[in-house]
UniProtKB/TrEMBL annotation:
It comes from the Bacteria. One of its GO terms (molecular function) is pyridoxal phosphate binding. This is Histidinol-phosphate aminotransferase. Pfam families: Aminotran_1_2. The lineage of its organism: Bacteria, Pseudomonadati, Pseudomonadota, Gammaproteobacteria, Vibrionales. It comes from Vibrio palustris.
Length: 347
């Protein structure tokens, strides 16, 4: 079977998601999931019928939440499918390229490689911001530029003026995609208002993080109506299952949004607890984070990661030297993690 696969697929190293890496324990702070397991009532019927391609109730609900028109919203199987749709719609295999800025989310590269699209990288600066001169120098053949903000795994928000400059330099040349998977934890930093000025801007969103619906696989792309129409040409005919629509609409209801707002505040408090507790440990550097996670550098990140793993505290190793990414979970999970790390360095 391996020999029958496309050459790009044969050479492909799959993305190692938190679930693929696995682990056994009772503290799971490796996948930036919400600690809240909210209950929903399924009210759907007629499951013998296909769902609408873009269910109006869901599209309208998210458009209202995001502050855009319904014509500017596309829903998909998580934001990951949005990444694939953008590459498939705008990049010719063997001719075009995407550009992204590591360290950042790994699926931009994996999706491009799967479709036979070249990957260009322009590393972030030392303070993890966009290197605009280097990006401009590497735009030849680039059709899609991916920027993650807040960035995964570093946790920082990209400078707004830099994003505007990037949009200016890519007009009539490339689509700029701002991945806002974690923006619900810092909505003041969203670029959604720039959609009115830049028709080549696309924004990725998800219900997986702040809405505590990682298992639902429901994401959104916000863009100009013209860009949305292009994506609708390549999306699957029935991308969002009926039960997903039912639960997502409940999450976006008035009551659901009130609960989400409360839980975001709680997670933000727990993130601050993690930051304060870990910052007091000698030799440990905690970087400011704006999502529901922190990037922490230890004297020996691999040793700390393994020791926590063996103790049933599952964290996420990072491409940053000695870096470990730690999700902001429940207060109990955060307290247990801080206590373990403190004892690890006092032993």
């Amino acid at each position: 079977m391996e020999k029958l696969a496309r050459k790009q697929v044969q050479a492909l190293t799959p993305y190692l998601s938190a679930r693929r890496i696995g682990g056994e324990g009772d503290v799971w702070l490796n996948a930036n999931e919400s600690p809240y397991d909210n209950e929903y009532q399924l009210t759907v019927s007629q499951l013998n019928r296909y769902s609408d391609c873009q269910p109006a109730t869901l599209i309208d609900a998210y458009a209202e939440y995001a502050g855009v028109s319904s014509e500017q919203v596309l829903t998909s199987r998580g934001a990951d499918e949005g990444i694939e749709l953008l590459i498939r719609a705008f990049c010719e295999a063997g001719d075009d390229a995407i550009l992204y800025c590591p360290p950042t989310y790994g699926m931009y590269a994996i999706s491009a490689e799967t479709f036979g699209v070249e990957r260009k990288t322009v590393p972030l600066t030392s303070d993890w911001q966009l290197d605009l001169p280097a990006i401009e120098a590497n735009l030849d053949k680039v059709k899609v530029v991916f920027v993650c903000s807040p960035n995964n795994p570093t946790g920082n928000v990209m400078n707004r003026d830099d994003i505007v400059t990037l949009l200016e330099m890519t007009q009539d040349r490339a689509i700029v995609v701002i991945d806002e998977a974690y923006i619900d934890f810092c909505l003041q930093d969203s670029t959604v208002d720039l959609l009115a000025t830049y028709p080549h801007l696309a924004i990725l969103r998800t219900l997986s993080k702040a809405f505590a619906l990682a298992g639902l696989r429901c994401g959104f792309t916000l863009a100009s109506p013209e860009l949305i129409q292009v994506l609708l040409k390549v999306i699957a005919p029935y991308p969002v299952p009926v039960p997903v629509v039912d639960i997502a609409v409940q999450a976006l209801s008035k009551a659901g949004l009130a609960r989400q707002k409360y839980q975001v505040l709680e997670i933000t408090v727990n993130r601050a607890y993690l930051q304060a507790g870990l910052s007091m440990i000698p030799g440990v550097t905690v970087h400011e984070g704006w999502g529901n996670y922190l990037l922490v550098q230890f004297p020996d990140g691999d040793a700390l990661f393994k020791a926590a793993w063996d103790a049933g505290i599952i964290l996420r190793n990072s491409p940053i030297e000695n870096g470990v990414r730690i999700s902001a979970g429940s207060r109990e999970e955060c307290e247990k993690t801080v206590t373990f790390i403190r004892n690890f360095y006092q032993a």
